[in-house]
Write a sequence for this structure.
């Protein structure tokens, strides 16, 4: 894994936003895999600003988000779909029909997961997958477990993960759904290139184990070691365990 350490979250976000903007200019039909969470907020702010400054054309870009809560509609408070509209999609020229999202309200979860896998394949696969990481080493909503489903699937969320997500529900943990749909690690590893961002001291242990530990379903991010083109972008706080 290629490691890049930045002096601040802002510097990391600016660099990645420039890289993504350059990739969109070079490949106007690029397929992006996108994350939600606190970590990508600075990236999306920087991307929106760059898009305005450079009149970046998103009309050919396709996106697939990593995950979504079960039971939430696309504009529901706390839904990742709403998060993406508010922080990125509503501010760039991406076409609505080019936005790939798991439907958290689908009555047939298995069919919905299969539809998502087909949609990604029909788009030609994901060119650039951008990821965050959970403090317990989860990717998307692939939680630590004994057996990790390879493809897009339904997940029962760990309590710490629900607690970490309460901020999107006005701090009300009881409003956080108990299940989610997520791309599987094989879906993620099929991307041609992967960039993982981690910032803040809360990610120190997960980052260290991901990069230096063995590959284990107990730390799903460790599977990224199998991918030939992964860049890990850290701020100094998240990198502290590597420098020790
Ligand atoms: C969430 C998301 C992940 C995200 C992670 C870290 O639960 N499902 O895709 O990477 O947790 O989030 P944050 O960036 O807020 O720390």
């Amino acid at each position: 894994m290629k490691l890049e350490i930045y002096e601040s979250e802002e510097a990391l976000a600016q660099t990645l936003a420039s890289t993504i903007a350059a990739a969109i200019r070079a490949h106007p039909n690029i397929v992006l895999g996108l994350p939600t969470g606190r970590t990508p907020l600075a990236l999306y702010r920087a991307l929106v600003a760059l898009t305005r400054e450079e009149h970046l054309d998103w009309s050919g870009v396709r996106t697939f988000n990593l995950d979504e809560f079960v039971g939430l509609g696309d504009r529901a408070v706390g839904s990742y779909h709403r998060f993406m509209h508010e922080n990125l999609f509503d501010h760039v020229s991406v076409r609505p029909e080019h936005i790939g999202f798991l439907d958290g309200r689908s009555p047939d979860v298995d069919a919905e997961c299969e539809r998502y896998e087909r949609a990604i394949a029909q788009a030609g696969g994901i060119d650039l997958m951008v990821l965050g990481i959970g403090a317990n080493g989860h990717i998307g909503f692939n939680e630590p477990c004994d057996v990790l489903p390879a493809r897009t699937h339904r997940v029962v969320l760990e309590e710490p993960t629900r607690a970490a997500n309460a901020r999107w529900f006005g701090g009300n943990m009881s409003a956080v759904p108990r299940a989610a749909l997520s791309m599987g690690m094989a879906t993620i590893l099929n991307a041609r290139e992967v960039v993982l961002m981690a910032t803040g001291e809360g990610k120190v242990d997960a980052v260290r184990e991901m990069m230096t530990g063995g590959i284990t379903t107990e730390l799903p991010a460790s599977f990224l070691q199998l991918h030939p083109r992964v860049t890990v972008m850290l701020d100094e706080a998240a990198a502290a365990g590597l420098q020790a």
Observations:
- The radius of gyration is 17 Å.
- The beta strands are 2-6, 31-34, 62-65, 67-69, 99-100, 128-131, 153-156, 179-182, 193-198, 230-235.
